[in-house]
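Morning F.,

Quick status update on the modeling queue. The single chain you submitted on Monday has been processed. Sequence for confirmation:
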Amino acid sequence: MAQFENIFRSSGNPLPAKHPLSHILVGGLGGIVAIAILALMDGSLEAALLLGSFGASCVLIFGFPEAPFSQPRNIIAGHGLSSFVGLLLLTLFGPTWWALALAAGLAIALMMATRTVHPPAGSNPVIIFLAQPGWDFLLFPTLTGAVLLVIVAWVFLKLSKRSAYPAYWW
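Structure tokens below.
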């Protein structure tokens, strides 16, 4: 029984510090503005601009704008590389479970090797294998949407004075 209890024992570290209310409000409002802009543009253009992983990108961008994962390089390249890998493996091997697993793992490895890790982008190969889009998915919604997220974040965070975003561009 003691071994079973040891499995679920935590390291004993305390919870992270609470976020200031101003950061919480800016984070939530930033997510609203960014997704609203993409959704409005998505409805007015022929090309789709929304990607499920962009919601998680907003958590990082507006909640933790100083983090390396939230920088433009990571957002744009992370989404681009992960979608490229997903589309490539879907094209080469079809919608098989093992090709999906390989795409997810390769996307992670490629982001790590290029120092462009953006955790939400890790879901792009899964999204691609489920939706089975064409290669235009790389431009719309992946790259166009990621660039628009960065632009919205840059303007919004400058106006809110929440953060000196970005810490670096590329």
